[in-house]
């Protein structure tokens, strides 16, 4: 379980990114975080792997306060909490499989990883994760030869190969067209559920949020202004989170066709 207890974060320039956050996120939940640009979505999820560090409160992962973690514990935390980025963050010149194997970095020694000396069972794990997202035939292709949707699937396979407890996804479909966005979100949700991973996804399209979330957390100006299961979420909820009527731009539209 992830628990935020009175968590606040003030950036070095004095800007308050998070204000007194109190949340409990259960194992296996698929949570979508929504809010306007600048509301604090990235700050919230990046606190969980300490890419940013809250300045007040306690942030518990399985009852351990990660805000007190130093180097060695931080490395372990980042093995347990995987991340998916809008820009995929693949090494473009390397093969798809090599990128996926980067997920084992925290498990295999750095030198062995740099030399590409992965144990056979790790390679099998990497290949099976590529298969789970439907691109095993691309394993030996250079990452930059793939489409955006395929590259994001590689990054999903990489995070699965890391065998984390938690996945953080920061606007994972913001660079993709509507049909591809739906396919990637479906894959992400399916594999998260199959592996019982706790997943937090930042999305800015409210129709996507409604389609894939178990639970929605709404942020405004660094504060939680809504937190509830998807069946309690209506268009009015989003108007309250955004503090204004819903506009066409807030919807991705389209479907998988
Ligand atoms: N390193 C930083 N130093 C100072 N202020 C920051 C820093 N990073 C983010 N902020 C500010 O904190 C607020 C929250 O930013 P954050 O990136 O978490 O928002 P967001 O909801 O993810 O927005 P977006 O959808 O635009 O990415 C914004 O006002 C942003 O300008």
From TrEMBL:
Gene (name only): phnC
GO MF annotation, one: ATP hydrolysis activity
Any coiled-coil regions, as ranges: none
Protein name: Phosphonate ABC transporter ATP-binding protein
Pfam families to which the protein is assigned, alphabetical: ABC_tran
InterPro entries with a match to the protein in the record: AAA+_ATPase, ABC_transporter-like_ATP-bd, ABC_transporter-like_CS, ABC_transpr_PhnC, MetN_ABC_transporter-like, P-loop_NTPase
GO CC annotations on file: membrane
Domain of life: Bacteria
Residue ranges annotated for the ABC transporter domain, each copy included: 2-246
UniProt keyword annotations, A-Z: ATP-binding, Cell membrane, Membrane, Nucleotide-binding, Phosphonate transport, Translocase, Transport
């Amino acid at each position: 379980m992830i628990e935020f207890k009175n968590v606040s974060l003030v950036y070095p320039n004095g800007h308050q990114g998070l204000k007194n956050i109190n949340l409990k996120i259960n194992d296996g939940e698929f949570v979508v975080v929504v809010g306007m640009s600048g509301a604090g979505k990235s700050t919230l999820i990046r606190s969980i792997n300490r890419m940013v560090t809250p300045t007040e409160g306690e942030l518990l992962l399985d009852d351990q306060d990660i805000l007190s973690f130093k180097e060695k514990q931080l490395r372990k935390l980042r093995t347990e909490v995987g991340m998916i980025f809008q820009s995929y963050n693949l090494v473009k010149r390397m093969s798809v499989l090599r990128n996926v194997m980067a997920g084992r970095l925290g498990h295999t020694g750095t030198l062995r990883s740099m030399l590409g000396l992965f144990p056979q069972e790790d390679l099998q794990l990497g290949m099976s994760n590529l298969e789970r997202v439907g691109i095993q035939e691309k394993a030996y292709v250079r990452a930059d030869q793939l489409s955006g949707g395929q590259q994001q699937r590689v990054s999903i396979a990489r995070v699965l190969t890391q065998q984390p407890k938690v996945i953080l996804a920061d606007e994972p479909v913001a660079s993709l067209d509507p049909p591809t966005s739906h396919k990637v979100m479906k894959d992400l949700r399916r594999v998260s559920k199959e592996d019982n991973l706790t997943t937090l996804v930042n999305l800015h399209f409210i129709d996507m949020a409604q389609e894939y979330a178990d639970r929605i957390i709404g942020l405004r100006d660094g504060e939680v202004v809504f937190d509830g299961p998807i069946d309690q979420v209506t268009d009015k909820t989003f108007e309250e989170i955004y503090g204004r009527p819903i506009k066409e731009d807030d919807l991705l539209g389209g479907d998988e066709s």
